[in-house]
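Problem 3 from the worked examples.
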Amino acid sequence: MPAPTQLFFPLIRNCELSRIYGTACYCHHKHLCCSSSYIPQSRLRYTPHPAYATFCRPKENWWQYTQGRRYASTPQKFYLTPPQVNSILKANEYSFKVPEFDGKNVSSVLGFDSNQLPANAPIEDRRSAATCLQTRGMLLGVFDGHAGCACSQAVSERLFYYIAVSLLPHETLLEIENAVESGRALLPILQWHKHPNDYFSKEASKLYFNSLRTYWQELIDLNTGESADIDVKEALINAFKRLDNDISLEAQVGDPNSFLNYLVLRVAFSGATACVAHVDGVDLHVANTGDSRAMLGVQEEDGSWSAVTLSNDHNAQNERELERLKLEHPKNEAKSVVKQDRLLGLLMPFRAFGDVKFKWSIDLQKRVIESGPDQLNDNEYTKFIPPNYHTPPYLTAEPEVTYHRLRPQDKFLVLATDGLWETMHRQDVVRIVGEYLTGMHRQQPIAVGGYKVTLGQMHGLLTERRAKMSSVFEDQNAATHLIRHAVGNNEFGTVDHERLSKMLSLPEELARMYRDDITIIVVQFNSHVVGAYQNQE
């Protein structure tokens, strides 16, 4: 498995390209490595360890390399046209509108918009959305991969099935198992809502199905058959933990098929965070593992917008997470379990799927690597043991589940990977989406944030404001509109086409230095249906 790009590509902001080129070096893994003091290590998901220093060596006459790639210390006068910008921004957008009558009842969800903008090549983020067919409700989720996209891809394909099975009553589980035993067609569990780029792995489908079947067989054995209300929170937690356990077990057992054997190992040694929402009537559950976020957009009586956070980041900025980690390990590890705001000084999120390097014992890691394929055995990253690694596991995939009862003023939910939250404040995110959905942004006064603005600059802001109306109409997708602002906003909070064009023109080698992958799902709620639920009670 290739070494993770994040080891060598820190995310930098507002930095001149000339500062980067002066520190270029050549990497044997075909990446351009940057170790400039201008690049903050705090933006890396993984912090480089001295063990990785052997990967890179200064390239002789590196300036010829950058010149050959036509990089220059002075900006090139090349900008994308508005149609070209729109083509890039809209390439991965997807929208789904829930039918007025969804077959069982009137849905509290009107529909959703989703989109992705890559920074990594290939993109490491994933997204999923599906309607539960044998139970009620809709599932939506974003998944942020690191050390590659293998784990986020697997989780995006599999997690909703584990959740759906966890929510099924005992009788339905028996019916599904009997159908498999007799070779009859299975009841469909999920109706997926996918963009054509959101693919499923056909090669691993049988392996994934067998693991899922084992899970529902165990649920059948554990359930007495008595009819009882299923606890959604417990079902979400069990599904997350079981899938992560299956990812680990599949990598330990291996597979006779060499392709599958390498795939399950790549999935296990890479990692992914997950933020998933389950909406059933007025009952909204958010299960979060890692540092993606769920934000509720609330419209106040005066028409203004406020943001309600429905998830907590699992990282060093969360005091409760720090305390949890320290309590799970001996006191003599209190200073080493989290160093430089990272798990064992390396990993930024404190909860994630995969990442068996932070979960398995050293002996198990060595045994699996030595018996694995040559690609794994020859890779320095997989053989590397984190420092101060004494009492694993240090990482868990157990989610933190938040419950919220929807109200008529709750208009939408934003699920997004940290690529969005690194660039925009939550209040700005909710305001921009709210104004987009209602078209009321024209009534807001222009805020200059304490800047001294000349008459000419104010004229320019008013001109941009007039043009902003056409921007709203050119975006038919709320997630696309949000990405446009995340990448192209200037200091006044308006989209600067020149800035947007520059950011989208960056070559693959440089894009990851300026921002992360961005994946967004905007779920719009039906206020009339939500209000009707309240009136019934």
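Problem 4, a separate protein:
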Amino acid sequence: MAGGVVVNTGGGKDYPGKLTMFVLLACIVAATGGLIFGYDIGISGGVTSMNPFLMKFFPSVYRKEQEAERNQSNQYCKFDSQLLTMFTSSLYLAALVASFFAATVTRVAGRKWSMFGGGVTFLIGAALNGAAKDVVMLILGRVLLGIGVGFANQSVPVYLSEMAPARLRGMLNIGFQLMITIGILCANLINYGTAKIKGGWGWRVSLALAAVPAAIIAVGALFLPDTPNSLIDRGHTDAAKRMLKRVRGTEDVEEEYSDLVAASEESKLVAHPWRNILQPRYRPQLVMAIVIPMFQQLTGINVIMFYAPVLFKTLGFADDASLMSAVITGLVNVFATFVSIVTVDRLGRRKLFLQGGAQMLACQIVVGSLIGAKFGFSGVAEIPKAYAAIVVLFICAYVAGFAWSWGPLGWLVPSEIFPLEIRSAGQSINVSVNMLCTFIIAQAFLPMLCRFKFILFFFFGAWVVVMTVFVALFLPETKNVPIEEMVLVWKSHWYWGRFIRDEDVHVGADLEMRGANGNGKLGGAQ
């Protein structure tokens, strides 16, 4: 690993050990941290398409929507309101700021307490939103939800990558993305149910039920074991060795334990991880920590998931039908994520990125063309049911492509590439860039839809081309590579190798020779 991790694993082989029930259960519980993020993504779009909610908090949007329906006016612009988008996107600004504080908590107190803090804060935010009397109370609740998301998204992927055996790291880490998709689906189903509540208070139920996933992660975190990496880093070496034996299901952990201790010793020499991450030897990790989450948001997925009900309503579906269409895309999201879980450690990360990118691009071109052909630039049209069904079909194919590529891999790859000495700082950059891009896109989407019309889908399609080419050229394969050996993947890469000096790689001679020649079993660095 860059930064002088001593590895003597002889050829990049996996450490001894198996997937124990203890690790599986710990990873399932930790992955529930994704539920709070997913539930919020799904609930926001549904609630903002409910008329009683709009009438109470955003009457101008409600009036504009009614006027658009009465006058058959521009469908693209009927939801365009900066206050409405501020409600949705305030969470992401709060998560951005919180992720930097979470880095310190994660490093000093351990990963589990960062998850616990995230769950409790999200719980308070859910209570405030459910009881909201005005827009200020609503947005304050959103900010607390955002702090919870920032803490959970910072700690959960790191926890999963540290607990998992190298050969199954992809599968277990994608549990986080699976929980995000389950959270989105549950939110869509709840919105579908609460929209039918007479009396117009269904939105309160939708927002308040965010307390359920928050309670699951907060209580679950109390029972989670600390990772061996975190225990060693905080000076509990005996406890770390016992934990490593337990998580690997074997007494033969000396090799991996000594590597973890060496990694920790090196990391303690780094007084300023935020400054150190700027050094040339960490350039590959820094670039990936910025570019991957940025690209993940520029796929346009949150445009679909936030605003799926709004988008379907714009396509002319009735309220119920638009929420049902969001449930359909949510189901596709969950099942397609299982494809990724099954294939990520067999096919590798690169193949899923490249295939998913090609599928998303094709779907965006088709969806943009179909919407453009009907609405044109005027935004006025009646869409036949069969035509709208075809649009939904291609949106589902797009969601599937994302759900087995950029969705899970956007969290997996950054969490598995950082050396211990910059891991918390690196993951904070990853989360904060993700949240910043989500905020910008959430804030800009409705005004862009109003001005760009159907061209918006081609805008995101162009970004999909850029990110797919980037992966093809600059992202090496990381499957089956122990985290402590990841430097050899970068060292043998045609471009990144120039940033890593030989003296930055402290490994056994056999492994170093294999890594430098690019012949080692290191996941096929490209």
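Solution to problem 4. DSSP finds 25 helices and no strands in the chain. The mean pLDDT is 84.
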